[in-house]
Amino acid sequence: MGGFSSLGISLPLLLAFVINFIILLALLGKFLYRPVLKMLDERTQKVKESMEWAETIKRDYEQAKVEVQRQIDRGRQEAQAIIAQALQKGESLKEEAKREASVQARAIVEKARVELGSERDKMVEDLRKEFVSLLILASEKVIRQTLDKEKQSRLIEETLAQIRPFSKN
After folding, report:
1. Gap between the Cα atoms of 132 and 130, Å rounded
2. What number of helices (H) and strands (E) belong to the chain?
3. Distance of CA 102 to CAs 91, 113, 156, Å?
4. Which domain covers residue 125, as residue numbers?
């Protein structure tokens, strides 16, 4: 032990330092190191839980994103189906309107044809009446005058001249 004293180290003091160091190490280990380790473990656990939670959220986000895209696609398909249906309905309405217009046009033409036929029949009837009255008039003239060939020819010519303007109408 004499060797330590020559170095200027006192053994009882060194021993006191070593005991103090061990006591300090034991106290630090018990009161500081373990709580710090416990706190670090808790912190590690919280970080781990946060990471797991973040992964769960990320998975949920990806699933929601896929679902939203699926719904968007379904909405587009439905919109396209509605548009196609509306176009088809428009075409059928257009065709129906054409058919209805055609039927109405035929009805109008048929009505005009009937009216024209009726007018023509009326005009023919009026012309017959006029012709009959002219024949009656001619017959009266013939009966009043003595009939020789020359008078008869002239009378027929006059009657025909009166009839011709009516036949041109």
Report:
1. 5
2. 4, 0
3. 16, 16, 53
4. 13-168
pLDDT of 142 strictly over 80: no
pLDDT tens-digit readout, 15-28: 999 999 999 999 98
pLDDT, average across residues 96-105: 92
Place of tokens 């061990």: 22
Indicate the DSSP class of residue 148: -
Number of domains in the chain: 1
Structure confidence by residue, pLDDT tens digits, 49-87: 999 999 999 999 999 999 999 999 999 999 999 999 999
Asked whether residue 117 is assigned to any structural domain, the reply reads: yes
77 belongs to a structural domain: yes
Look at residues 80, 40, 111, 161 and name the one whose alpha carbon lies nearest to residue 103.
Answer: 111
| Distance from C-alpha of 104 to C-alpha of 27, rounded to nearest angstrom | 111
